[in-house]
Amino acid sequence: MGNNIEIIPIKPSEVFCISDLDENDSFIVVCELDIDKNNHPVERTDFYGFKLVQEMRMKGLKNRVLFVSFLPERYFRKKVLNATIMTFYGHGFLQLPFTLNECKKVIEKINIPDNLSLYDVQRHACGLKEIIEEKLHILRPTLKDKLTLTELEKKACKSLIIEVYNSLSKEYNKAIGELNTVNDGNAAYDTVRSILYRVLPVDSDDKNNPDKKIADWKYWKVLWLDDKESDESPLKKELEHRGIKVVMASSYDKAMKIWEDDRIVNQEFCLILSDYRLKNEDNSREKQGYHFIKFIAEENIGIGLMAYSGLTRRFLMESFKHYGIQLDINSKIDFPQINVTQLNYLADQIIYSGDEHWMLRNNQPQSEEWELLRPNYFKYKNSPEYYTHQLEISRIVMEQVKIFIEFFESDYNGQEQIWNFLFK
After folding, report:
1. Closest CA to 10 of 48, 37, 40, 43
2. How far apart are CA 33 and CA 35, in angstroms?
3. Radius of gyration of the chain (CA)
4. pLDDT tens by residue, 217-226
5. pLDDT above 90: percentage of residues in the chain
6. pTM higher than the cut 0.85
């Protein structure tokens, strides 16, 4: 920002239409905007300014944002859930009235978000569920593994419930009463989380169309092979609540049919989640979950693989060593779906792996030469040695770069010698 500040007033509907927007440009956003991005009037008390910035971040905008309001910052911190975004990297707040010079100083102190901080704010401050999870994340260390809760810890639980319920204009007395029967920390955390999740709104379109669950920023699906799981499984519900479509299969043959149909039409599956052993009434099946995992791995198509079985993790790890397959391994013993914390961890793992493999499949070179290399590359990517190879390559490259830097900075090397430098 130079010595002169050019302030251009725009409407919310114009934010995503700016063709010459520079990353160094900053947004000054009034918290009490009374018109939304569709030019529809909204109540000032809805504080649409926060919702607009949430959408800006979800669209990938990294510009600095300064929120302004006649109300003090402490009001928003205590009363408005969406105001959580103010506490994240890339945002600031200034109470009206102020001078132009004061505005400039505050904006200059705001950092431009990088990719990591943008990802952070998207996942923790751009939705009611994400904001609640962030607040639970802060509460969790207070309660973790406490056998008996102190009055201070109980107060922290009640304060969080009151904060969320008040901000949504909901009655909280009955919810708080549920905590009176809970004494240990882990149970208190699960109870608070359950209470807070009840306030999450259900979109009217979702009521009429239960399958409409995929968020705008997700383009891939999970194929889950397990003879004991169903559409009512907590993990499936959690993933779909986060915007991931999960397709269930109860047998190897059904999974193969779903897989082949998708390959012909959409190729949307980016992660396979599979049980190890499948059973029917006579306790046997010719094709098992591990056969399906092996089949997918041998296809060399860059799909994320995860085993999720009731068997012990040690057995699963030893078993898959024989296949030479790189995959994530989780046991239902260690990560039961009835445990909220473990369920969240498992969902996080699945989404991270799915995102990674979606990027892998959709950011490939398109040349004819690549088509010849593709099978070998995916075979390498799916091998257990992949990460070992990557670390070794990184080590060699770093050594060579260090040598080049020393060579470049030497007083004894001229321009011609630098241009002729060869890496080993």
Report:
1. 37
2. 6
3. 26
4. 456 899 999 9
5. 18
6. no
